[in-house]
Each structure stands twice: as C-alpha cells, then as structure tokens.
Please model this.
Amino acid sequence: MDALVKTTNPVTSALAEAAPIPVNKPRIRPFDSATLIVIDRTGRTPKLLMGKRHAGLKFMPGKFVFPGGRIEPGDAAMPVVGALHPRAEQALMAHVARPSPQRGRALALAAIREMYEETGILFGSRAYGGPERVPNGGWEAFRQHGVLPDLEALQVIARAITPSKRARRFDTRFFAIDRRAIGHVTDGVVGPESELVELAWVTLTQARALDLPIITRIILADLEDRLANGFAPELPVPFYYHRSGRSICERL
Model:
C-alpha cells in the first residue's frame, strides 16, 4: 500500500453537510455496497452510462446515478472467470475489519449483479458457456444467457462511507469497467415503473449538467483524473470518510 495521505477536501466537506443529522439517533453501521461505472472509450471523448432513479423512490429520487446497491450473501458463491487485479484486491482489503480476497471478490460481483438487476446488462464472458449452478436472485440470468462474470475487466476507482448518523449509510466501493466487456443485454428492465426510468450515455461534461448526488460529482472528478493518467489499475484509490466532524480523503 502506498503511504496514506489524509487531507481535508472542500468537496467532501460539502458531502458532510448534504444531509441533515437526525437528533438523538444512534450511529448506523454502513452496509457494504458496490457501484459499477461503465465507460465507452471507442470515440474521441469517453462516455459513461448513467441511470435516472424513479421520482417516487425515497432514496435519491429523480437523481442520475451509477447503478449499484448492497452486497448479498449469494454474491460470494457466483462462479467467475478471471481474477481481480492485485492492486484492486489490495484496495478492497484496506481498512476493513476482516480483510480477505473473498470479500473483495463478493463486492466486485455485487457491482456486476446490481448492474444487471437495474439495467439488464450482463458483464462477462460467453466463451466458456454459462455456469451450471448459480446463487439465487439476479444470477440466474447469467446462467440462462451463458455469461460468466469476468473480474479481470474491473478496476477499483474509489471508496466512500456515508457520514455517521445518517438515516441510510453505505460503505461503497466504486468499480469501473469498459463497455466492451458486456456479454449480453436484456431489454425491458429500465422503464417508467422501474428503479431506473432511463439510461443515458453521457460525456463527463454532460454528466455534470445532470441532477447528481454530491458523491457522484466527487467520483466524476476522480474518474476524469484517472482517465487523464491512462486509466491504469495501479493508480491510487481515493477513500472518502468522516472522523470527528472532519471530511477526509485518504489514498489507498
């Protein structure tokens, strides 16, 4: 691991003030979660896949986001091809209570599963056929369409923990993957009554003009910096969290 650098960031300070702190509420332990950012670099200007959340949702209604959600018990058991880059494994095991490659693998798979459940897009390889057995839930579609998740295609680009005493808290790992890693697309998942009502391929400039959560704006800046530096998996991974009322960005 590189030397850890702690800094106060004005953007993360804004994040700390974004949501009111409930009075006399105990601290809520954050849920492990994962988000997947899809990048299309086939043109002169990279584009990102973003989805608009349904206006009737209680959490971030109407916002444009990267698909993602909480880790589920079955994620760790999903068969895969390829392995996470050693740098990604290192970042995923940093600053966790019980670090293990299996936990990092489960987080990466959660990002892939959530992408399918929210968009209908399956990331992985069809070269080996589908797995004979899969965990319950969204993984059944991977078996049906003959897609095995390929962890080698993923990069870890950031991590962020929701400030304490918020009504909902997440310890989110942000993964990125190239559009060319799509194995299959199922139509009809996104629509007026779905969690995501629309999908859009947007440039970084176009993304910033959308109605975004503050953390998404922060990650966009990190992604732009990573792209400018060659999008190499060895690049540092920013880790945003709060301690004693201070917003901190640490480089993993």
User: Anything to note?
Assistant: The CA atoms of residues 109 and 131 lie 15 Å apart. The longest strand covers residues 31-40. DSSP finds six helices and twelve strands in the chain. Confidence is low (pLDDT under 50) at residues 1-23.
